[in-house]
# Entry
Amino acid sequence: MKRTRVLVLLHPEQMPPDSIKGYSEQDIIAFKTGYDVVNTLRKARHEVRVLGVQHELRPIRAEIDSFQPDIVFNLLEEFHGEPAYDQNVASYLELTRIPYTGCNPRGLMLSRGKDLSKKLLHYHRIPVPAFAVFPMNKKVTRPPRLLFPLIVKSLSEDASLGIAQKSIVDNDEKLAERVAFVHEKIGTAAIAEQYIDGRELYVGVIGNKRMRVLPIWELYFGDAASKIATAKVKFDVKYQEERGILQGPATDLPPDLYKRIQNLTRRICRTLELDGYARIDFRLSADGVPYFLEANPNPEIARHEVFAEAAAYDGMKYSEMLRRIIALGIQRARAKG
# Structure
């Protein structure tokens, strides 16, 4: 790939240092994606500029005018502190006619709302756990069809924010308490969905119209107190080591089930209009039903995160993966004229 001018957008707190010497493995979590992306692109001799963005679009316009990038590498997961606003940044980049990496605004909108994505996929006969949404400042009344046990989450936040052992509830009193916790501590509506006791599977996808589905990855919970992806399970390095929590290729899946999950992944991406790169999360029940949990457009792509490890397992080097992500952004822009 020719030498490319790349403007990397990320949250100011994720700005990578020049070197990771002296940082602990736990400290690196905060900026590892930006560090891996920026350093890999620079080693490939691309011209890279990094911009921290949080509250204003004006700095993006100024950098585009002064730097004249060939593409914007969009690593933003939120804007104004709201995950749902990442679609607005993508929309702004669309309006400036600058190529950018990752998902388009419509795909971001359809997938970020956990209730909306589940409704759409249920309509298309994709297995989805039964669920109900509990808005702020309203009495918690469980629909009779929603049976225990349930898992309670924030409707809009991601990265396992607010998910803990107490998120799994088995009666109406605990349900009301956990919904109140989400309302008060996280400040969002809550969603309660049927808890599926089974295996946690992640499937990465890279591509626009033609999708390459990566090998199915699994989160192995080891001796974790509960078999759910809590913030501790995902981000606490010491806890992971103590409990033997690992992630790696999913084993012992029958070939027909493996193929079914990959086909479901393609259908989900088309239904939610995802492009660029994405990760689809499933819960595989004991009777072999893969239930859709959520779609993650623009997921973590640090070198040792699920997406990049699955790509490497599939024969795609990290530098090649980034090259492909950039090429997809440029191809999409060209297709739109």
Notes: The first strand starts at residue 5 and ends at 10. Residues 148 and 170 are 5 Å apart (CA to CA). The chain has three domains: 5-102, 130-194, 198-335. Residues 198-335 form a domain with the D-amino Acid Aminotransferase; Chain A, domain 1 fold (CATH 3.30.470.20).
